[in-house]
Amino acid sequence: LLNQSDNTTWSNITNVATGANSTWNGLANSNAIVAQPGHTSSAAALCLNLVSGGFDDWYLPSNFELYQLGNNLYSVNKSLSTISGATELFSGFDYTYWSSTENTAVAAFDLRAGSNFFEGVKGLSARCRAIRSF
């Protein structure tokens, strides 16, 4: 219900394809990211390790899951406003959120202000927000 980080890289491994290329299955992507040989840190690990609200099945959303949240921002943020301590999704005008969907060996999709997807270099920092299946 909070950003897991406002400043994290997609993965500490920035030049190897992981196979995390599902546009709809963020959980499978997240598991592929943390299964990389040499993996020590990632946006996906922050999400997979989250225990919140009595739930431990959180993950980094795929690009399409993230897009769905952006398209339903009013309803999502209205619901979040009823939860003590939760922060709105996509708050502010200058944000970039990682998706778990890899585009190339050196880049993954991220969602930037205005609900546009871009190819973000894996070693650059962005926000990450865990979700559960919906």
Automatic annotation (TrEMBL):
Q: What is this protein called?
A: DUF1566 domain-containing protein
